[in-house]
Amino acid sequence: MIRAYAAFEQGAELQPFEYDPGELQACEVEIDVLYSGICHSDLSMIDNEWGISRYPLVPGHEIVGRIAKLGEKVRHFSPGELVGLGWHAGFCKECSLCCSGDHNLCASAQATIVGHYGGFAEKVRAQADSVVAIPDGLDVESAGPLFCGGITVFNPLVQFDVKPTDKVAVIGIGGLGHIALQFLNAWGCEVTAFTSSEVKRNEALQLGAHHALNSRDLSEVASASGQFDLIISTVNVKLDWNLFLSTLAPKGRLHFVGATLEPLDIGVFSLIGGQRSISGSPVGSPATIARMLDFARLHNIKPVVEKYKLADVNSALARLRSGKAHYRIVLER
Fold this sequence. Notes:
Layout: E1 2-6, E2 15-19, E3 28-38, H1 40-46, E4 63-70, E5 82-85, E6 88-90, H2 96-99, E7 110-111, E8 123-127, E9 132-133, H3 149-159, E10 167-171, H4 177-187, E11 190-195, H5 198-207, E12 211-214, H6 218-222, E13 228-233, H7 241-245, E14 248-256, H8 268-274, E15 277-280, H9 286-298, E16 305-309, H10 313-321, E17 328-332
Parallel strand pairs: 10-11, 10-13, 11-12, 13-14, 14-15, 16-17
Antiparallel strand pairs: 1-2, 3-4, 3-8, 3-17, 4-5, 5-9, 6-7
Helix pairs in contact: 3-4
């Protein structure tokens, strides 16, 4: 039996829960969980905001732990090896996307916390191909958030071939944005932070931004007209997207990684006239996650985290709901 914490109904507090994982499959591994980050997606799943939750629901998809058991066909891991697991716990491995390395876009991928028990537990199981080794030298206690929040903001740098000479802005300096600033600075870009918080404005500069602008001050936003090659939006609220489009240089891209639920109100002439683009992306493939971890290790990039014991998971979730988390929360088992 595996002991965990689960929500038994929509929006409920988590309670102790045990389940029998059954026989370990040939291509699976079992991981002893050491740390599990809490992502806003965990809250969305607990609350069934996306209409895909199944209960009892064990959240947790930013997992760091050690290999406890190996399926009989797993050859590339060893017992005790330090690994991480993110949003995906398995892939079909047969579709054209899996075969071309874009596993994260597989339509049949198994999400770690959708119809599968996640990492707010003593152990978790996953397909070995979805698990990524953690390189020596990476800070283990803060590594969990890299497996969702980190890869979410790193993936666009790879997908869109962002250049070190590019001017890039980040909207929202929170759980995603504060990691994006660090990656972009180390990538070599000229980095601008858009934030509505004066406190975060100063901290953004410490985290790697070269400039910080007030996202609620229309004149400050307008002052950046025509500047950016890329804007990464990490927020989940509606903003004046046409205003931000005006800050893009010709051929610039407004890219969404924050799950804004309201439809985008976009004037098409700003896109056509400047040959600008709007796009979005999810987490990255296991190969891209491995590349991100190496990059984070080389440049000493670490999410800023608050730690809670796993037994205090409901207090940690309440802290995240309050909007006061600085900037990510990690559960320690």
